[in-house]
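sorry for the late reply, my laptop died twice this morning and i had to redo everyting from scratch. anyway the thing you sent over, i finally got around to it. pasting the sequence first so we're on the same page, its 133 residues, then the predicted structure underneath. double check i copied it right bc i was rushing
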Amino acid sequence: QVQLAESGGGLVQAGGSLRLSCAASGRTFSRDGMGWFRQAPGKEREFVAAIRWSGGTICYADSVKGRFTIARDNAKNTVDLQMNSLKPEDTAVYYCAGDSVNPRLSLSYDCNYYAEVSIYDYWGQGTQVTVSS
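ok and here's the structure:
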């Protein structure tokens, strides 16, 4: 099984940037879809971004499009989330997650598939991001 460890969270002022990193260990995740989710206090976990195993399909929530960038390095077993122009509403615990089940080909290009919490079978412990106004 793969273990995930997020890092890079912290406190930043509105308009600032943070880069989150997720490192995988245990086995390579090079054939897994990877996603970032976040959960604010009292709210459900929500989709932020995802990337297909090949990197050929990249998906973002509307709330972060144009501000966040997801990227993966299969050789290093890492997936990063660059967050720019941060807003107070971005405050949450951010989680990295992996989907080791190979969906049928058409689904593997479908952002609606990657936005579902339930498809991910392994998760990191999360890292706190706090954006002050």
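The two ends are 40 Å apart (CA to CA).
thats about all i looked at so far, will dig more tmrw
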